[in-house]
Amino acid sequence: MPSSRFRETLISTGTRAAAALEALLRRIPAVQRRLEAQYETLLAEIEPSLKPYRNEVPAYARLPAVGRSRNDILAEMRRLAERETPRWREGFVSGAIYHGDPDHQAFLSQAYAIHAASNPLHADLWPSIARYEAEIVAMTASMLGGVPGVCGTVTSGGTESILLAMKTYRDWARERRGVRHPEVIVPRTAHAAFDKAAHYFGIRLVRIPVDADFRADVAAARRAITRNTIALVGSAPSFPHGVIDPIADLAALAGERRIGMHVDACLGGFVLPWARQLGYPVPPFDFSVPGVTSISVDTHKYGYAAKGTSVILYRTEDLRRFQYYVAADWPGGLYVSPTMAGSRPGGLSAAAWAAMVSIGEQGYLEATRRILETARRIRCGIESIPELRVLGDPLWVIAFTSTRLDIYRVLDQMAQRGWHLNGLHHPPAIHICVTLPHTQPGVADRFIADLRDAVAAVRREPRARGGMAPVYGMAASLPFRGVISDLLRRYLDMVYRV
Ligand SMILES: Cc1ncc(COP(=O)(O)O)c(C=O)c1O
């Protein structure tokens, strides 16, 4: 038996070699032409669902010569929104919409409108926004351990919080330890935002395996540490399977090696503290764990704020200073910017603050109770279908697979019944991320009934064509991974086509 380190090296070398070979093949002009034609065909199939308004509303590829009336514009916007709202409001969507109640949304819109003109880049012009942001950070820190000295900033979302944490560790390790080739160790299941951070900031991302329950393998993390390692990462919980990594063990390892320990609680930061109070088994994951040095947590998910805010927390102000950007010799004047963007929408911070203060501890506790009870019913329902198997031991993000059926066909069948669920791979699976719209009466039962029907349909006709199943099938096979990446880039091109 080769050692696990040797096996990991072998697999990663094999993966790199196959990727290099594939990249080479894709550069051959004849292969490239064939692929481009295939991309066009595949994307043409999904284009109508992404551009449903093409023949219904004017398409502006340039400015209208004369501005339209405001009433006319608002009426058009309402028409489009009304078409899109029922699906999420009626609870057909996994994640994406976390609150969705019309009164709550109207309240957030009012808070935004009051501060729509503000820009926290100019804290002196809008000290109100500086107050909201400071209090958002303080309230979030108090929820996640209440440890004195913990500080942070408001960002635009989970991805920005993660990007900033990784940049912070890179700059910290460069200055304090002279690390020139930084590496970050993340579980295989950590969010793609860590890949993005590594890509943007020249960090080598070292992916470690997860165990049978999809939790990070701490022994593999220990083996992966080198003198270039700047931080370890754990999720609480992970996006794909909704399970919490062994944060205390990872943090102990990070503390022992004097490196950073980032906890990605984007999804769980506003749920787990309340779940614990409700008696659910929540392992330590926040700043109460020695060794945890930063946490990302999203106000725009279970904080029930409008989309566009998150919080990145650090254990010390010393660490947070590595996140800031300051320019002392720019002709435009003395410049300071805490996050990635320069100018920022103060209205969104105002709305996030308003959400937190209006919901309060009791509101979050009650929302968490409803979500976890609904999730438990959904999980039991999935487990009662013999063809399906729940992955790991999740609380409210429930991933499931099948050893008997093509799970992506089940995903397609659910889509035909109106459901917008998430496809996962490695291993092939689907998940539903339970949010408040699912807690409405009848939604969980409808989900289970539709899932039973979907499974029965796949059993009857296992080889139906179309949908996402063939795309996921291709993505799972190593030689096609680069092709899928190319296809995804062309998908984005299409999204931006007028
Ligand atoms: C665990 C986790 N981390 C990070 C993110 C990224 O957050 P965002 O989409 O707000 O950038 C998500 C999003 O679902 C997530 O679930």
Using the coordinates shown, work out and report the CATH topology of the domain at 112-356. Answer: Aspartate Aminotransferase, domain 2
- The first-to-last residue Cα distance is 57 Å
Strand content: 5-15%
Q: From the coordinates shown, what is the CATH architecture of the domain at 112-356?
A: 3-Layer(aba) Sandwich
Instruction: Specify the overall morphology.
Output: globular
Give the radius of gyration. 24 Å
Give the ordered list of helices and strands.
HHHHHEHEHEHEHEHEEHEEHEEHEEHHH
Assembly annotation: single chain
Rounded mean pLDDT is 94
Structural class estimated from helices and strands = alpha/beta
CATH superfamily of the domain at 112-356: Type I PLP-dependent aspartate aminotransferase-like (Major domain)
How many β-strand stretches? 13
Count of helix runs: 16
Question: What's the CATH C level of the domain at 112-356?
Answer: Alpha Beta
Give every kind of bound small molecule, once each. Answer: pyridoxal-5'-phosphate
Stretches with pLDDT under 50, minimum 5 residues: none
Structure commentary:
The chain has 498 residues and is α/β, with parallel strands linked by helices. The chain has a domain at 112-356: Aspartate Aminotransferase, domain 2 (3-Layer(aba) Sandwich). It is 48% helix and 11% strand. The protein has 16 helices and 13 strands. It has helices at residues 4-26, 29-50, 70-89, 102-114, 127-143, 158-177, 193-201, 218-224, 247-257, 272-277, 317-320, 346-383, 407-416, 443-460, 469-476, 481-495; strands spanning 151-155, 183-187, 204-208, 229-235, 260-264, 294-297, 310-314, 325-327, 335-337, 389-390, 397-401, 422-424, 429-433. Strands 1-7-6-5-4-2-3 form a 7-stranded mixed beta sheet, with helices on both faces. Helix 7 (193-201) links the parallel strand 2 (183-187) and strand 3. Helix 4 (102-114) packs antiparallel against helix 12. The chain is globular, with a radius of gyration of 24 Å. The protein starts with a helix and ends with a helix. The mean pLDDT is 94. The structure holds pyridoxal-5'-phosphate. The site of pyridoxal-5'-phosphate has 12 residues, from helix 6. Residues 157-159, 191, 193, 235, 239, 264, 266-267, 298, 310 line the site of pyridoxal-5'-phosphate.
